[in-house]
Amino acid sequence: MSVIDCQAMGLPVIGPRTGWLAEHIDNELLFDTDEQAVRIVTRLATDPEFYLLHAKRAHASTTDLAPAAVAARYLEAIQ
Q1: Can you name the residues that pair with 15 across neighbouring β-strands?
Q2: What is the pLDDT of residue 39?
Q3: 16 phi and psi, to 5 degrees?
Q4: 41: which of 13, 15, 35, 62 is 20 to 30 A away, CA to CA?
């Protein structure tokens, strides 16, 4: 699944601190090293409060990505 699809379902997504992912994923879920990635995944799996916080943030990050809103922003950008 895509990052956006997972987030829309409330699934926290982790990613490297590079490219467009770094702009869309919560800063606490970004990593620079494999060790950081493992720590984040471990915390998501073992800390229910951390998981629920990021599940809510993941879902909220996609609420303005409805097709009509995205199309309107695109049309505005190219005009």
Answers
A1: 30
A2: 98
A3: -70, 150
A4: 62
